């Protein structure tokens, strides 16, 4: 419908069309001056400015084929001529054995400036090299400022944390609560506590700049039952007074009778200061800080003296009692000691702070705010622990507890599922509504777009990762230092290369170009690309796409009548990587260097690699199609778990959790034996071999998994798997038009189906096959495979007459505009200008994916109450399918055939 019809139908009398400039929400875009300057040949900070709190940093960097050998050493040089100690390791290799990607780490506390370089050369040694010592019962790690003991077994992740000669904290462990009922109207008969138990400890890196200790285990309940397997990594940097903790658990409970009531990280803090020299601090929003002492000395009826008050407020040791006003020092025992403090954030838009003197007495409300950073401090003037959680309010319900602040040993707990929130409920949201047979399920699919099947609606095997930081300090940090640490913990500093350098290196198939607004047409496309990222930044916040299981994902389709995304309608709700938003965002970042694009893609990857993929159980290695709940759809498929969507984040950051998931899916094709993705389709033609593998979505995913494994390890078994499968497809007369091949999960072989059975799906190319094929053709010389792919690229959007002449029938096509990039690829590979012009015509077709391609934003509206609960900006014609596939087509067409535009 047109805009007038939309206004009439929606009753949005107060809604007005908006210009692109009026839509600005503070997101930096590729066309915005907010994007930091990135100099070719140099590295820079993602957000532009160097972080004030320098905790040690890790990042990834690409290299052109043949540029860097395994024998080359690397060094880091700043713009002012200093050399900074650097630890480097390869994360991917080119086919010739040269290094494709490296990861790098720099020490804590070292200034790099805004621009710096990694070059070949002799590396500088760190002033305080990280030292790792293995003992019979524990691993000791010394950063030069902080010593940490990691037990090799038992109940504690960390035994002790020492600064200088003083132990400051000890006994870090994972804790939790589970109960047998979630309905508040039903009585709870069982509430059980559980705690982490270490099974295995591995030293993954030993320094000298960075060390990593990996801890694996399960949580053990009071009853003796073990559940929720976890992986924890402890990260140590040279000279650091902090350590970073990455924690992942896999859900393996009975969702009908085991309801998690709390999950947290707890540790003890040793208190040595007088009560009035101890401090508790919570960081709120926009540099806001709540700072008090367990024994406050301000606001009393008698004044202890300005020097005393100023010292406590600043977090310094107060003057000796002999220098206090005696009318205060002699009556201090009447001033209450506040032992317990809690900050709880149960939703994305509100937190509360409360405190009490001790158990058995009332809590007193202290303050409230909107979005807490999740960073706190407990300790005294002679030392304590500043600690926090990344993405705190975004991953609500969350909570920070400080207990016994007035006693010799205090406890701090970072709850990543708050015990004050309703218990975690991952049961499926409906009872099946009578969908017992495949016929009924396919019939229901026609109305709600939900692919339901009993037993497939389970969260068993999904995961979630939470990152923490513990800073072991020798004194109470100043207010500014506390806030600076909060900024680093809530949004860790990231180093990136310039877009020119990503492109020049040839990684990821080089299917993009740098933004170019040199002509009217190019500017229209560039403006639309930039707007799309800004629009989704805005949608995340306006529609509150936050929460423990949800943060990072976006919704699939919009409801123009309710002015909301279809959060409650079957397959139209959470997107779960449908039609490759991950790829669109990562390619967008590579070409623009835009920090908001990176952060949007980062949150998506951190979500989809954990929540949308099964990590154990029947569906291990598969992902789940879009649904009201991330695990709700019965379509468990390789196209969601594919490495194609996560490898960007791994190579750009060196993230170890993402590496774990890339390892998990290497042989995910074996899951096709356990779960046939086409089991509900009638009249399927038989294929050779035990398993069915669709040549589009399945093969593209398997190829991405094997390609990534080959890159990361250099192991030729993965290259051989790829070449064998590519030859099978390339030598088949129907090639990619054969549709479904046989697959032997044991031998990893593709098996050719009979000739002449043409099968074409509009989904084959929109889950990463285009992008992965570009890399396969770039890296492997299999001429028959390239020819088969170029044939498919030319014919998909061709005329009916051309299709009949080529394959014998005029198969229908869909998503013509997104598939224009296939036409463009063939045109670029073959130097065919006529085909290039056809590609631009396809891109501009007045289909749903090409709508508004010219950058005419008149159909963007601001909708205000009472039509909606909260004001929203909406593009009613846009879905995530639209944005993702239009964005990829625009980016790749500009890279491949811009001269023909």
TrEMBL record:
Superkingdom classification of source: Bacteria
Domain PcRGLX/YetA-like N-terminal RIFT barrel: 42-120
Protein's name in the database: Tat pathway signal sequence domain protein
Segments forming domain PcRGLX/YetA-like central beta-sandwich: 130-483
Coiled coil regions in record: none
Residue span, PcRGLX/YetA-like C-terminal alpha/alpha toroid domain: 492-900
Residues that span the membrane, as ranges: none
Pfam families referenced in this protein's UniProt entry, alphabetically: PcRGLX_1st, PcRGLX_2nd, PcRGLX_3rd
Annotated GO biological process: carbohydrate metabolic process
């Amino acid at each position: 419908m047109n805009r007038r019809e939309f206004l009439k139908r929606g009753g949005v009398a107060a809604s007005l069309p908006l210009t692109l400039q009026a839509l600005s929400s503070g997101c930096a875009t590729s066309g915005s001056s907010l994007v930091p300057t990135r100099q070719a040949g140099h590295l820079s900070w993602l957000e532009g400015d160097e972080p004030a709190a320098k905790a040690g940093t890790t990042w990834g960097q690409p290299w052109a084929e043949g540029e860097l050998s395994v024998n080359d050493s690397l060094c880091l040089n700043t713009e002012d001529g200093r050399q900074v100690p650097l630890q480097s390791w390869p994360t991917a290799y080119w086919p010739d054995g040269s290094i494709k990607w490296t990861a790098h780490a720099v020490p804590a506390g070292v200034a790099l400036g805004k621009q710096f370089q990694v070059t070949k050369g002799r590396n500088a040694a760190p002033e305080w090299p990280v030292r790792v010592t293995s003992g019979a019962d524990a691993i000791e790690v010394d950063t030069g400022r902080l010593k940490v003991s990691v037990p090799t077994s038992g109940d504690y992740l960390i035994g002790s944390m020492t600064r200088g000669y003083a132990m400051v904290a000890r006994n870090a462990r994972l804790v939790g609560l589970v109960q047998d009922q979630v309905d508040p109207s039903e009585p709870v008969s069982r509430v059980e506590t559980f705690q982490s138990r270490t099974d295995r400890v591995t030293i993954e890196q030993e320094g000298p700049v960075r060390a990593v200790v990996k801890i694996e285990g399960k949580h053990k309940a009071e009853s003796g039952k073990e559940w929720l397997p976890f992986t924890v990594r402890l990260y140590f940097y040279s000279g650091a007074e902090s350590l970073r903790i990455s924690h992942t658990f896999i859900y393996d409970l009975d969702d009908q009778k085991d309801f998690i009531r709390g999950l947290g990280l707890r540790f003890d803090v040793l208190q040595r200061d007088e009560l009035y020299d101890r401090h508790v601090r919570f960081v709120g929003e926009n540099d806001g800080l709540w700072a008090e002492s367990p024994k406050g000395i301000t606001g009393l009826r008698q004044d202890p003296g300005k020097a005393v008050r100023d010292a406590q407020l600043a977090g310094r040791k107060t003057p000796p009692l002999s220098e206090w006003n005696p009318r205060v020092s002699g009556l201090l025992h009447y001033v209450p000691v506040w032992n317990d403090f809690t900050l709880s954030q149960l939703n994305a838009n509100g937190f509360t702070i409360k405190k009490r003197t001790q158990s058995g007495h009332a809590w007193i409300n202290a303050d409230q705010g909107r979005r807490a950073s999740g960073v706190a401090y407990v300790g005294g003037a002679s030392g304590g622990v500043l600690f926090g959680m990344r993405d705190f309010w975004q991953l609500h319900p969350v909570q920070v507890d400080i207990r016994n602040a007035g006693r010799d040993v205090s406890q701090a707990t970072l709850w990543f599922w708050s015990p004050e929130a309703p218990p975690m409920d991952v049961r499926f949201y409906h009872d099946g509504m009578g969908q017992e047979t495949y016929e009924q399920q396919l019939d229901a699919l026609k109305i709600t777009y939900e692919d339901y099947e009993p037993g497939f609606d389970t969260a068993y095997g999904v995961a979630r990762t939470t990152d923490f930081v513990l800073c072991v300090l020798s004194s109470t940090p100043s207010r500014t230092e506390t806030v600076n640490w909060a900024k680093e913990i809530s949004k860790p500093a990231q180093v990136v290369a310039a877009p020119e350098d990503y492109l020049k290196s040839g990684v990821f198939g080089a299917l993009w170009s740098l933004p170019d607004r040199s002509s009217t047409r190019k500017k229209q496309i560039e403006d639309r690309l930039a707007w799309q990222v800004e629009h989704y930044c805005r949608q995340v916040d306006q529609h509150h796409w936050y929460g423990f299981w949800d943060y990072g994902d976006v919704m699939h389709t919009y409801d123009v009548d309710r002015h909301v995304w279809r959060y409650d309608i079957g397959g139209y709700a959470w997107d779960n990587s449908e039609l490759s938003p991950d790829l669109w965002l990562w390619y967008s970042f590579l070409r623009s260097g835009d920090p908001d694009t990176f952060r949007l893609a980062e949150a998506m990857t951190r979500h989809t690699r954990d929540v949308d993929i099964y990590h154990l159980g029947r569906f291990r290695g598969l992902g789940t199609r879009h649904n009201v709940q991330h695990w709700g759809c019965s379509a468990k498929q390789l196209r969601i778990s594919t490495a194609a969507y996560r490898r960007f984040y791994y190579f750009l950051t060196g993230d170890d959790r993402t590496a774990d998931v890339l390892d998990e899916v290497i042989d995910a094709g074996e899951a096709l034996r356990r779960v046939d993705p086409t089991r509900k389709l009638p009249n399927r033609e038989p294929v050779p071999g035990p398993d069915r593998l669709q040549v589009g979505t399945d093969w593209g995913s398997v190829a991405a998994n094997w390609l990534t494994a080959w890159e990361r390890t250099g192991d030729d078994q993965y290259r051989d798997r790829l070449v064998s499968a590519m030859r099978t497809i390339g030598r088949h007369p129907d090639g990619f038009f054969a549709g479904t091949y046989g697959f032997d999960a044991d031998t990893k072989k593709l098996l050719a189906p009979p000739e002449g059975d043409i099968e074409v799906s509009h989904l084959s190319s929109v889950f990463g096959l285009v992008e992965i094929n570009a890399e396969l053709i770039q890296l492997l010389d299999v001429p028959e495979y390239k020819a088969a792919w170029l044939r498919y690229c030319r014919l998909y959007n061709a005329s009916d007459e051309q299709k009949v002449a080529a394959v014998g029938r005029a198969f229908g096509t869909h998503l013509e505009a997104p598939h224009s990039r296939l036409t463009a690829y063939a045109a670029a590979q073959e130097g065919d200008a006529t085909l290039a012009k056809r590609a631009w015509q396809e891109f501009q077709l007045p289909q749903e994916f090409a709508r508004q391609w010219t950058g005419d934003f008149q159909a963007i509206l601001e909708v205000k109450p009472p039509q909606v609960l909260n004001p929203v900006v909406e593009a009613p014609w846009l879905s995530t399918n639209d944005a993702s596939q239009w964005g990829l087509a625009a980016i790749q067409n500009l890279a491949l055939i811009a001269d023909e535009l």
